[in-house]
């Protein structure tokens, strides 16, 4: 994941317009945040949590994705994500350089009409984080 994350950073630095994306939603009214939490990071670095996402994904039946950006002043924003097989559930962690915690959320996406239950993904994800020693609140 680190290699493509570095590529994403490079693309964001070279072509700022590459940050804009569009998604065709089958039902935009369905998209919503379902639950949120914060996870304390043992250091002010996102890399350990990034590795945890990679380890947790196959255990809970999701795949990973991520986006990183630099605002030109050395401030780096990172969004780590997990998506369900039918892409109707997404779990993300948002972090900014120097923060001691990442903001977590689970949401129903509007990409696929095949609705999957979101609670099992969220419950297993938080459980895996806690088992790994993360403080989630």
Question: Would you write up a description of this structure?
Answer:
The chain has three helices and five strands. By secondary structure, it is α+β, with helices and mostly antiparallel strands. The chain has a five-stranded antiparallel β-sheet with strand order 1-5-4-3-2. Mean pLDDT is 83; it is low at 1-21. The chain is 29% helix and 30% strand. The protein is globular.
SSE run: HEHEEEEH
Distance from first to last alpha carbon: 26 Å
Q: What is the tally of beta strands?
A: 5
Low-confidence parts: 1-21
Mean pLDDT: 83
> How does the helix and strand content classify structurally?
alpha+beta
Largest sheet: 5 strands, antiparallel
Helix content: 25-40%
Strand order of the largest sheet: 1-5-4-3-2
What is the alpha-carbon Rg in Å?
15 Å
Our estimate of the beta-strand percent is: 25-35%
C-alpha geometry: globular
Count of DSSP H/I helices? 3
Element layout with pairings:
Elements: H1 2-14, E1 32-40, H2 47-60, E2 63-70, E3 76-83, E4 89-96, E5 101-108, H3 119-131
Antiparallel strand pairs: 1-5, 2-3, 3-4, 4-5
What structural keywords apply?
single chain, 137 residues, alpha+beta, 5-stranded antiparallel sheet, 5 strands, 29% helix, globular
């Amino acid at each position: 994941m680190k290699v493509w994350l570095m590529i994403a950073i490079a693309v964001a630095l070279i072509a700022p317009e590459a940050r804009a994306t569009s998604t065709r939603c089958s039902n935009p009214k369905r998209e919503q945040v379902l639950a949120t939490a914060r996870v304390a990071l043992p250091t002010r670095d996102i890399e350990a949590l990034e590795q945890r996402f990679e380890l947790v994904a196959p255990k809970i039946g999701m795949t990973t994705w991520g986006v990183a950006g630099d605002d030109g002043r050395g401030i780096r924003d990172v969004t780590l994500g997990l998506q369900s097989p039918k892409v109707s559930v997404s779990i993300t962690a948002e972090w900014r350089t120097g923060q001691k915690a990442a903001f977590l959320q689970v949401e129903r996406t509007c990409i696929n009409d095949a609705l999957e239950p979101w609670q099992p993904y969220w419950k297993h994800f938080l459980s895996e984080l806690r088992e790994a020693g993360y403080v989630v609140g």
